[in-house]
């Protein structure tokens, strides 16, 4: 249950009410919002005299539910990019899996500027399956990204690997990516909830839709309403592709949640040849964002080499996306 307390309730009173009802709470525009367990369908007596509005829920998908807010939440990226809300924009995010050098990320930034794309992705702290794989450039890479943003006027998205550097990523990035392997890390989720910056939360490859959105609830219930859900493929019995992109799940998220949905065909397919077709299908779904991996020379990439498009391949694919978006009333930004 979501409870909007009356405007005259102060923080100390909100704390006591939250303790009495086993609720979490946050402040929004001078008012406090309590979220109690979903099993509560009737307003507790202790809240009757202090409640402005309340919303019973049938599961712990609460703040993200369209039963609470029917309109898609609006996300502000940087100074001039908006998605969600009533904008009908599809944000195209691209760049290498990992930042590897100043030359590589500069070439990537120039590709984006040439195509008038606003948002550059690159990993600095890489959560790898093997301890012997490239782990990223860390803070050195993060500072390189900050310099590229300053020079080219791009928005930056990069990933948090663990709680040791979450504050640094929040400080330097325009969008903080919580990767699939960190989806269950409550320390990261709570830190992102305290931030007032867009968060892109990736679905773990073994997570149900319920578990995925409940992870987003950790961020929302800490007061950060700038959350995007990213579908990047789930593990199935199929072994000819890296994962299986759950477009059925995307249809569910669009129908039942108020959070913008981003699709990552690069990680789902795992092989470059299939990514253009899969991306076109994603655009046709009418999603709010796309995450595509590109690299100046994929064959020498230090991570995810097989799934990254080279710049010529990306340009060719990009040319085909705008007509599809236009056909369904959307705009690639």
Distance between the termini: 36 Å
Strand content range: 15-25%
Low-confidence stretches: none
Number of domains: 2
Number of H/I helices: 10
Portion of residues within helices:
25-40%
- Structural class, by secondary structure, is alpha/beta
CATH architecture of the largest domain: Alpha-Beta Barrel
**Largest pleated sheet:** 8 strands, parallel, barrel
Question: What can be said about this structure in brief?
Answer:
With 333 residues, the protein is α/β, with parallel strands linked by helices. It is 33% helix and 20% strand. Helix 5 packs across helix 6.
Considering the chains and any ligands shown, give keywords for the structure.
single chain, 333 residues, TIM Barrel, 8-stranded parallel β-barrel
Task: Give an account of the 3D structure.
The protein has 333 residues and is an alpha/beta fold. It has 2 domains: 2-55; 74-332, Alpha-Beta Barrel (TIM Barrel), CATH 3.20.20.70. 33% of the residues lie in helices and 20% in strands. The protein is built from 10 helices and 15 strands. The strands form 3 sheets. Strands 7-8-9-10-11-12-13-14 form an 8-stranded parallel barrel, surrounded by 7 helices. A 4-stranded antiparallel beta sheet has the order 2-3-1-4, covered by helices on one side. Helix 2 links the parallel strand 7 (89-95) and strand 8. Helix 2 packs parallel to helix 3, helix 5 packs across helix 6 and helix 9 packs parallel to helix 10. The longest helix is centred in the last third of the chain and has 17 residues, at 311-327. It is globular and about 65 Å long. It starts with a strand and ends with a strand. The mean pLDDT is 96.
